[in-house]
Amino acid sequence: MDVIRWGILGTGRIANKFAQDSELVGTAQIAAVGSRKLETAQVFASKYGIPNAHGSYDDLVNDSEVDAIYVCTPHPWHCEHTLLALNAGKHVLCEKSFAMTANEAASMISTARKTRRFLMEGMWTRFLPAIVRLRELLELGKIGTLRALQVDLGVQIPFDPKNRLFDKTVGGGALLDLGIYPISFAFMLMGPPSRYVGFASLGETNVDMQHAILFDYQDGRHAQLTGTFLADAPGVANLLGSAGRIIVQPRFHHPHALTLIRGGQHEEISAPFAGGGFQFQIAHVNAQIRNGALESRVMPLDETLEIMRCMDDLRAQWGLRYDADGLG
Questions:
Q1: pLDDT in tens, 94-122
Q2: What are the structural domains, with CATH classification, of the chain?
Q3: What pLDDT score was predicted for residue 18?
Q4: C-alpha to C-alpha distance for 246 and 223, rounded to whole angstroms
Q5: What whole-number distance in Å separates Cα of residue 70 and Cα of residue 29?
Q6: CA gap 112, 109 in Å, rounded
Q7: How far is CA 74 from CA 183, 233, 266, 273, in A?
């Protein structure tokens, strides 16, 4: 198949971003959208010229005109909706955080492998031009051996117990919404840590309002990761190497530039892009599906599972439990 026909499961902010950026991908067609209410799906479909609108997720995943499903509902429902799509024979791109727990993630991955359908966590950052260039610079040894990583991501958000970000019953907290970015970034560049420790400030609703995480590696490398709802942070990543350093900016999870610093010399590497940046991820998934791949080498399923295990362990350190943990 030359063109991958997508169905969008959900109609929120991220669904709009996906629909907009898909227009920049010649191999993508949005064939259908699904919502819990037909009227909501119809409004979304009209906005983007999508031919089919469904008033249930079951109808969407069983649409014969759809090859792949983009799951972009809130993360407490990622597992349920991904399994629904996989068992209907569809390929799936599931938004991050991939699931609520590692157990959910394992179930999703197991089902994808049993049904032989492509599955990937939607960590779009890994496919942006600046991040692709970053990996190339590291492979070329431009800063020698990467010794340390410093990453922060923070947005000051007024506390509202009704806001899903602060609602424990729907997986609220900075970790699953913001912390996933620095954690995944560190895994991508440095691999899984040998051990890690985290500290968190829990708010009135018992979710993490702010956290600090330290990754330790057996060879002496470290990553310092911060996420917060309590303050605005620059969102810059600093990579410290034995022969130089790289700054990823202005926001490391959707950067347009890199600064390579060696011997006191600064080299600015520009990597601008049109649109919101989702188009690179969409194009990657389309290529994988067309080539018959069942997962991505850039965002492997086993790595997604390790990241979920890491976040489970961090929450356990903080005493933060979700219903999905089976502990209330």
A1: 999 999 999 999 999 999 999 999 999 99
A2: 4-123 (3.40.50.720), 129-272+308-325 (3.30.360.10)
A3: 98
A4: 14
A5: 12
A6: 5
A7: 19, 24, 41, 27
Q: Tens digits of per-residue pLDDT, 171-193?
A: 999 999 999 999 999 999 999 99
How large a percentage of the chain has pLDDT more than 90? 98
CA angle 18, 307, 30 (to 5 degrees): 15
Give the residue among 237, 272, 279 at the shortest CA–CA distance from 257.
272
Residues 146, 138: contact at Cβ < 8 Å? yes
By DSSP bridging, strand 222-228 and strand 119-122 are unpaired
Which residue, 151, 120, 142, is CA-closest to 300?
120
Q: Is the peptide bond before 201 cis (omega within 30 degrees of 0)?
A: no
Please report how many Cα atoms fall inside a 13 Å half-sphere around the Cα of residue 322, on the Cβ side. Answer: 27
Q: Tokens 């069983």: give the residue.
A: 62
**Closest to 246 in 3D by CA, of 229, 234, 225, 262:** 262
With residues binned 3-state (H G I as helix, E B as strand, rest as coil), the percentages for the chain, rounded to 5, are 40, 25, 35
* DSSP result, 234-259: ---EEEEETTEEEEEES-TTS-SEEE
**Cβ-contact 308, 316 below 8 angstroms:** no
Peptide bond between residue 250 and the one before it cis (omega within 30 degrees of 0): yes
Directed axis angle between helix 13-22 and helix 38-48, to 10°? Answer: 30
Tell me the residue type at 197.
V
